[in-house]
Every structure is written in structure tokens, then in C-alpha cells.
Amino acid sequence: MDQAQSLREYMHRYNVQMEKRKPSRVVTITSGKGGVGKSNFTLNFALSLQSLGKKVVILDLDLSTANINILMGISPRYRLLDVLFQRKNILDVIEKGLGGIEYIYGGLELEDLLRLDQRLLAYFVSQLEELQNYADFILLDTGAGISKELVEFILASDETILITTPEPTAIADAYAVLKTVHQFAEQSPKFRLVINRAQSYAEAVETSKRMQNASSHFLKIELKTLGYLLEDSHVRKSVKLQTPFLITFPNCTASKNMKQIVYSYMPDLNGIPTASSKGIRGFFEKVLLLRKSL
Ligand SMILES: Nc1ncnc2c1ncn2[C@@H]1O[C@H](COP(=O)(O)OP(=O)(O)OP(=O)(O)O)[C@@H](O)[C@H]1O
Ligand SMILES: [Mg+2]
């Protein structure tokens, strides 16, 4: 990178930071069952938010099968902990993918953070603060299945998008996530449901009603549905091309569904106070506190 370019980059980042008022919104994307479409959702949701002028950074916290970078066609050079061990600035470990999507490969165990001495932890927190000023949204792509870690992530984030397909096994596993988190939370965390791979809108509506009824009846959780994505062969084709479907097939059904999801997400957001949100810094602080107490 030449000097002029790095100066431009710096000024851009500086301006973004100066204009920022609210801390970034931390959104966890998860599911009960694996392979229901979390990573594809995260990537294309990020692109859609970005197209509406939002600054989005994807943080890959899927430790077992971190692979969103494959969907983006990039191999990460850094991981989040390089901020500490290589004294990198957090904005320098952001990888850029197609469509300008920004991504940080987590590749960390929470235990790694708990072992840090005070000085390093303070440095890490200061770097998170920088990321917080930089991004409007931080999307956390997680692994499937209920783990202690996942519960901590859900409790610490501003909201969680829970993805399921209409398959009874996926629905049961999604419900199990709600139930487990409910046991630990004093206040019910904010969940929004996305039905993926439905064969028809009728099937999607039916699936979301089943989930909503079960969660309001048994858990007293009011589960809002964020939207639906139909089964669409273009998704698989895009995965093979290692390019998000919103870029390869902007007019395919899945892309139209995704745009619809983001349109309904944005106005809905305006009604939610973000003052209590402490952004990604607050997220990690809460996760570490929970790790000590859960
Ligand atoms: N709407 C859709 N229509 C058709 N196929 C889809 C759709 N969504 C996802 N898929 C298929 O499901 C596969 C798995 O998707 P993805 O990798 O996003 O799931 P995941 O939940 O992140 O998986 P993991 O739990 O392993 O992280 C994709 O490679 C794609 O083939
Ligand atoms: Mg995934």
C-alpha cells in the first residue's frame, strides 16, 4: 500500500470514528442444528446492511468449523488474538472480502482471554473500543449446538438471530437453544427468528407460528420473526463459487428474501433503545464475567 493510500484509509477510518455516536450493535447469529444456513445468512445480511450505508464487521466466533472465510473466498492472514500477540491494531486484522465486506477471524478460546494479565487485557479492551467506534454492526457467526460458550455469547449480545429450517429436528434444536438460554437469563434475551430453506411462504409461516406458540406457551418468551428465506438452488451455486449470493445472483429468490429481511429489520431497530448497549467491548466484558459465574 502506498503512503497516499494508507493516509486515505486512515482518514476514512478517522472520519468514520468521528461521526460515530452510538456503540456498535452486537448481533449473534446462531442455530440449534448445524448446517441450517447461519454463515450464508451472516454474510449476505452483512452485505444488505452495508448497502443501506451501515458499517458492518463480521466476527467469526465459530471455533469448531469456522468457514465463513471460505464462503467469502479469502483465507485470513490474522486472527483476533494477533491484536495482542503481534501488537496489531484491531482495524489491521480486518480482512476485506468481495463487496467490501469486512471480517475478523476470531480463532480464540475464551480461556485465552481469561489467562491474560491486566496490562494485555487493558490493551485488548482499548482495541475493542476502537472497533466499537468503527462499526455500526458487529455480526457474530457462531457454531451450532448448545455450548456454554454459545449461551454466554447470546446473553452478552444485544440481540440474537436464531435460524432454523422447517425440519422438525432443526425446530426442536432451535427450541432447545431458547430453553437453555432462558434457564440462565434473568431477563429474556432478545431473539429474532429466521426460517431458512422453506419450500413455500406457507411452510415458512407455519414453522414460525409453531416456534412462536411453543416459546410463548412454555417459556413465556415472545419470539419475533424477522423473516424467511426460501429454498433456492442459487445459494448452493454461490457457495461453490465462493461468492455471496447477493453478489452472484442479486435477483434470485434468496437475495430478494434477504433484502426484505433487512428492510423489515431496519425500521424495527429504530424503536429499540441502544443506550444500554455497550457494544463489542461490553460484549467481551460480559462474556468474561459470565465465564467466571456460570
Ligand atoms: N436458502 C437456501 N437454499 C438452498 N440451500 C441453502 C440455503 N441456505 C443454506 N443452504 C445450503 O446449506 C449449506 C450450509 O449453509 P451454511 O454453511 O451457511 O450453514 P451453517 O449453519 O453456517 O453451517 P455450520 O453449522 O456448519 O456452521 C450451504 O452450503 C447451502 O448449500
Ligand atoms: Mg457456519
TrEMBL record:
Q: What InterPro entries has UniProt attached to this entry?
A: FlhG, MinD_FleN, P-loop_NTPase, ParA/MinD_ATPase, YlxH/NBP35
Alphabetized, the UniProt keywords read: ATP-binding, Nucleotide-binding
Pfam families with a match to the protein in the record:
ParA
Question: What name does the UniProt record give this protein?
Answer: MinD/ParA family protein
List, alphabetically, the PANTHER family matched: CELLULOSE BIOSYNTHESIS PROTEIN BCSQ-RELATED, SEPTUM SITE-DETERMINING PROTEIN MIND HOMOLOG, CHLOROPLASTIC-RELATED
Q: Which domain of life is it from?
A: Bacteria
UniProt cross-references to SUPFAM superfamilies, sorted A to Z: P-loop containing nucleoside triphosphate hydrolases (SSF52540)
Native organism: Bacillus xiapuensis
